[in-house]
Amino acid sequence: MPDAAWDEDQDAAAMLHRLRGVAGVRKLRLLACACARARWSGLALDACRAGVEIAERHADGQATDAELKAASEEVFAELFGVDTGDPRANLIADRCTRELVVEAATGALAAYSGDAAAMVREIFADPSMRLSTLTRDEAVLAVARQIYDARDFARLPELADLLVAAGCTHAAALAHLRGPGPHYRGCWALDAVLGKGQGAPVFTEIQWYTASRPFVMLHWWDYWREPLSPRKLRLLAVACCRLRWRDLARFGLEQAVQTAEEFADDLVDSGALERAHEPARRLRDSIAATLGAMSAEDAGRDELRNAWQAHLVVASLTEPDPGGLDSARHHSARDTDDAGQAELIRELLGNPFKPARIAPSWLTWRSGAIVELARAIYQKHDFVLVPRLADQLRAAGCRDSELLEHLQQNRGHVRGCWALDAILGKQ
Ligand SMILES: [Zn+2]
Ligand SMILES: [Zn+2]
Question: CA 187, CA 360: separation in Å to the nearest integer?
């Protein structure tokens, strides 16, 4: 389906999706803050208002990450259990201060009960529009800066008159400045006058390859590409389980993990998955019984905590509903570093900026030898043979260095490997 015309689109989330690669952290943060400004009178708590102000300053490089984090904690603490003001407005303030700027923008838009699409149009110009420098006239720029700093947006029509007098002919920008608004910091037309940009990209390729927080990586992926398929989600969880295989084996859960892996590829039915869920349930019941008989100082509590963790992971893994899998990943704390899991995410998902492209001629090379080898590796977990795929692909004419380099590695591959999946046409 073609995109709706920018002016008429009513789907704010789809509009944000279209802005991937265009929208930077400054604009996304200001979009969240604009939603809060639109509900300013509902923000009854000082901490909420202060949080929005800090988020706005952060967008323009005038507040540090540490200040934003402190503001976020303060807003959260203030909001806990209170019912002052407009709850939706307070929720928007909470979203504004979120560290991850996409979460801030989408969260604020979701909580904003007004015309969310109009809000996106206030902050972002039509992506198909050409915008160059609107004026270099110092006097006009001085007025624009005053308006921005004082949030004196009622003066925007006056600014439009000054722009025309200085020779500006950009009809869309002039019409926007003269329009009814409401306008906010980040207004695309005022930003265009001031030469203010998008800010840094949401994330870069280098950040992707050096990231170590699984939560953040999956969040980026969902924004940039699309939510993971239930198969990938389950295989990722399985691969993460294999990182702590000994723990799981100790609690008798390894067969359940293997069944979940097979279920991901439709090799067993949901009945088998349900039966695989049983050991996790039994473990949970036995933990509950043991815990009841234990004193708070008992040395066995650490072991129980491990068991509880193992049960949680495997219980969600053997949950037929992929929604359960998705919520399971949110249990992993967003601040937690885990280099092993981060590596697995890169192994399963590849490079978000460069989806793998497989030429049909590689797949038909020597009567399908490459696909045949890939399938055998996959079925037998024979991942030491993966480098042979790189040799064959090269012989078939492949020059994709990212794909070849990945396959050349003789370790670290698992079911769900992005390169193998690309060859096998799996999602
Ligand atoms: Zn505006
Ligand atoms: Zn791999």
Answer: 47
Mean pLDDT, consecutive 10-residue stretches, the chain (427 aa), reads 80 93 97 96 87 97 97 88 80 95 96 94 94 92 98 98 96 96 97 96 97 92 90 90 87 91 93 90 86 74 82 84 62 76 94 94 96 97 96 97 95 95 96
Nearest ligand, CA of residue 410? 2
Global pTM value: 0.89
Number of structural domains found in the chain: 4
**Which residues lie at CB < 5 A from ion ligand 1?**
122, 183, 187
116 and 148 share one domain: no
Distances (CA, A) of 221 to 205, 215, 352, 425: 12, 10, 7, 20
Q: Is residue 341 part of a domain?
A: no
Q: How far is CA 50 from the centre of its chain?
A: 26
Cα–ligand 1 centroid distance for 413 (angstroms):
50
Q: 168 and 95 in one domain?
A: no
